[in-house]
Amino acid sequence: MEMIMDIAATIVAQMQKPTLAFLIGGMMLAACGSKLEVPEPVYKFVVMLLLLKVGLGAGISVREADLVALAVPAVLAILVGIGIVLIGSGTLARWRGVSHMDGMATAGLFGAVSASTLAASMAMLDAEQIAYEGFIGALYPFMDVAALVTAIVLARMSAARKAVAANAVGGTITMGGRGGTGSCFDGAVVRGILRDTFQSAAISALVLGIVIGIFARPESVYNSFYEPLFRGLLSVLMLVMGMEAWSRLSELRKVAGAYVAYGLAAPLVHGLLGFGAGLIAHHLTEFSAGGVVLLSVMAASSSDISGPPTMRGALPDANPSSYVGASTGLGTPVAILSIPLWIALADMVIGV
User: Fold this and answer.
1) Residues 231, 49 contacting (CB under 8 angstroms)
2) Any idea what the Cα angle at residue 344 is, between residues 339 and 346, rounded to 5°?
3) What confidence tens digit (pLDDT) does each residue in 96-155 have?
4) What is the CA radius of gyration of the chain?
5) Residue in 162, 110, 124, 132 with CA at minimum distance from that of residue 298
6) Cβ contacts of residue 76 below 8 Å, gap of 6+?
7) Could you tell me the maximum CA-CA distance found in the chain, to the nearest angstrom?
């Protein structure tokens, strides 16, 4: 009974946070027939600023980290981010009735990282006096960007396949000068999708911020402009996404159970994947037990900051009520509640 009360309290606390509160507020406005609307140019400007801020913060973190000690955990974080998206691609995105685009956007958010969940886990480790590496904060962009880009590329490749199949004549498809069956999907198309993905406004802003954060010294503008505006701009974005989500809520009624099941189970499965990667880093580089716990938490968490604007910009056809609702509404509470599990597991396997 106590566990049920804890879960309910955590869910209520998440609903009171700006990310989910403004999303629900937007849905309520749309349900009431409100004429409120944010002009598209303003919306695009808000998304650009948000992603530049996320990229700058990630780049600064990477620049200030010990790159030698960071290398192995960073590679493993990238692999975990990609692995989580592949798991989502083979489960949720293939669930009967679930739109593949919605499933991949959801998998991308679950593969990306919640900075607030990571901060909560660090505070918990500090309270327990469990040591961890100082560069841990610099690991999240590796998992974050890897997951988001992988989800976007796979979603676009699937959409391209469907478009090619729809345009096929007599079951024969010719691509890149080569004929074949409907399953043919040559390298030129893949390269084109990768190029389009990295040239898209969302990924371009994110990558630019990371590069500037690593190779320049943007701390002054970051601290004086991007950081103070960030939460307010994010609330505007979530309001817009909430209004859009309401208009598409009917699409989810038949498959809501799929997102509930995924939102409850995925953080635990992903956390185990992160724990395994942490153990590999521990044996290769003496990565600390606290570091293993935090890598598990990063894998278990789902993005509430970088993910929504990236998906909204790169996959506009995906339904925000699916990927934001599953990740922030369910995934985040489960990830936070699972932190003691990863601490206990690390203590059992490594000793903290």
Assistant:
1) no
2) 95
3) 889 999 999 999 999 998 877 887 788 788 888 889 887 887 788 889 889 999 999 999
4) 20
5) 110
6) 277, 278, 280, 281, 295
7) 67
Burial of 5: CB neighbours in 10 Å, binned 0-12, 13-18, 19+: exposed
Q: How far from the centroid of its chain's Cα atoms is residue 236's Cα?
A: 19
Give CA–CA dist 234/306, Å, rounded.
10
Task: Name every residue whose Cβ is closer than 8 Å to that of residue 90 and which is 6 or more positions away in sequence.
Answer: none
- Token readout for 263 is 């939102």
How do beta strands 178-180 and 173-175 pair?
A: antiparallel
pLDDT > 70 fraction of the chain, expressed in percent and rounded: 84
Rounded distance, CA 200 to CA 237, Å? 18
Distance between CA atoms of residues 85 and 77, nearest Å: 13
Tokens of residue 239, six digits: 């309001």
- Three-state secondary structure readout of 126-190: HHCCCCCCCCHHHCHHHHHHHHHHHHHHHHHHHHHHHHHHHHCECCEEEECCEEECCCCCCHHHH
DSSP tag of 344: H
Residue whose C-alpha is closest to residue 196's, from 164, 149, 158: 149
Joined tokens for residue 105:
């956007």
Considering only CA atoms, which of 337, 349, 351 is closest in space to residue 3? 337
Report phi then psi at 175, rounded to 5: -135, 135
